[in-house]
Write a structure and sequence with these properties.
With 308 residues, the protein is of the alpha/beta class. The chain folds into 2 domains: 244 residues, P-loop containing nucleotide triphosphate hydrolases (Rossmann fold, 3-Layer(aba) Sandwich), CATH 3.40.50; 59 residues, Alpha-Beta Plaits. It is built from 11 helices and 13 strands. Strand 8 and strand 9 form a beta hairpin. Helix 4 packs parallel to helix 5. The radius of gyration is 22 Å and the shape is elongated. The structure holds iron/sulfur cluster (2 copies).
């Protein structure tokens, strides 16, 4: 089983649109499980006519709780908190749950053992499915933290589903940016597709994203979406790719059929199979198939074996 993760340095460049179409086309040749690890804004399942199979809350975050019956009001916990999450109110400590990181420093210094660190529900996992496709999606609860922990859980469940169904590929719609959920999404994967667009802002964010991916030594390819909107930025992206020995594996043209397909909540390759963007995404999938067949995308297990 191999994992391909599709990420972007910034939001709004068309990552989920491309992932939905990529998943549809890929599933025509290989068995796939789709994973949505864009836990702040999961929307991959919206593109598919899928029913909810299973949904449950998860706890990957911890917070401090005070037993006021034991508290003497010494306020050592307030002094030690580096996140300003423990504040004094009327000479008693109060936890600001919104910012508490659950680090436990307050618990350690409390002489009365009045503080406990407890797990809190901070997200929800939903598994959608039809006879043809399984989608595992994670959503962070509003205002909650530890999105990376939820991504880990989505990946774990996606792997379980993939093993159960003897699936060849997990294709993940990762989050935008370079933070904790992106790191959790790309780690352990076999190939990263970085989606960008030819604008200075997207290029700057792409550079930061590729720096993160390089740390994990995972092979990567770049997809330029809306490829002709600015030729100068397009040339700069290609120059950056060349300098970093990363292949630009696809250039998808700006195509009004894409927003029209989004309005219909359908992957563009299903809604408008002959549209220029659909044709480009089909070529992208062919390219990735070729990479798979040539051994350029190899399972993580094989890579470990080679290292000996
Ligand atoms: S350190 Fe313990 S006893 Fe002191 S104020 Fe905080 S909770 Fe109360
Ligand atoms: S657990 Fe850490 S972040 Fe939360 S209140 Fe205690 S010291 Fe502050």
């Amino acid at each position: 089983m191999k994992e391909i993760v599709i990420v972007s340095g910034k939001g709004g460049v068309g990552k989920s649109t491309i992932t939905a179409s990529f998943g549809v086309l890929f599933s025509k040749k290989y068995k796939v499980v789709l994973a949505d690890t864009d836990v702040d804004a999961p929307n991959l399942a919206l593109f598919f006519d899928v029913a909810e199979k299973n949904s449950y809350d998860i706890s990957t975050s911890e917070k401090a709780y005070i037993a006021y019956g034991k508290c003497t009001g010494c306020l050592r916990c307030v002094e030690v908190c580096r996140f300003s999450s423990m504040v004094a109110l009327h000479k008693k400590p109060v936890v600001i749950a919104y910012t508490c990181e659950g680090c436990g420093a307050c618990m350690v210094v409390c002489p009365e053992k009045a503080i406990e660190i407890k797990r809190v529900e901070n997200g929800r996992i939903t598994v959608y499915g039809t006879d043809h496709i399984i989608i595992v999606s994670g959503a962070l609860h509003i205002g909650e933290s530890n999105s990376g922990g939820i991504v880990d859980e989505v990946k774990k469940i996606a792997k379980q589903e993939a093993k159960k169904l003897n699936v060849d590929f997990i294709i993940t719609d990762g989050p935008p940016g370079i933070g904790c959920p992106v790191i959790s999404s790309v780690k352990g994967s076999d190939y990263v597709i970085a989606v960008t667009e030819p604008t200075p802002a997207a290029l700057r964010d792409l550079k930061r994203l590729i720096a993160v991916v390089k740390n994990f030594r995972i092979p990567a390819g770049i997809v330029i979406n809306k490829s002709e909107i600015d030729q100068k930025s397009g040339r700069e992206i290609k120059g950056f790719a060349e300098k970093n020995e990363i292949t630009v594996i696809s250039a998808i043209p700006y195509d009004l059929r894409i927003p029209e397909a989004i309005a219909k909540a359908m992957p563009v390759v299903d809604a408008y199979p002959d549209a220029p963007s659909s044709q480009a995404i089909r070529r992208l999938v062919d390219t990735v198939w070729t990479l798979v067949q040539s051994g350029a995308i190899e399972p993580a297990v094989a890579k470990k074996d080679k290292k000996g």
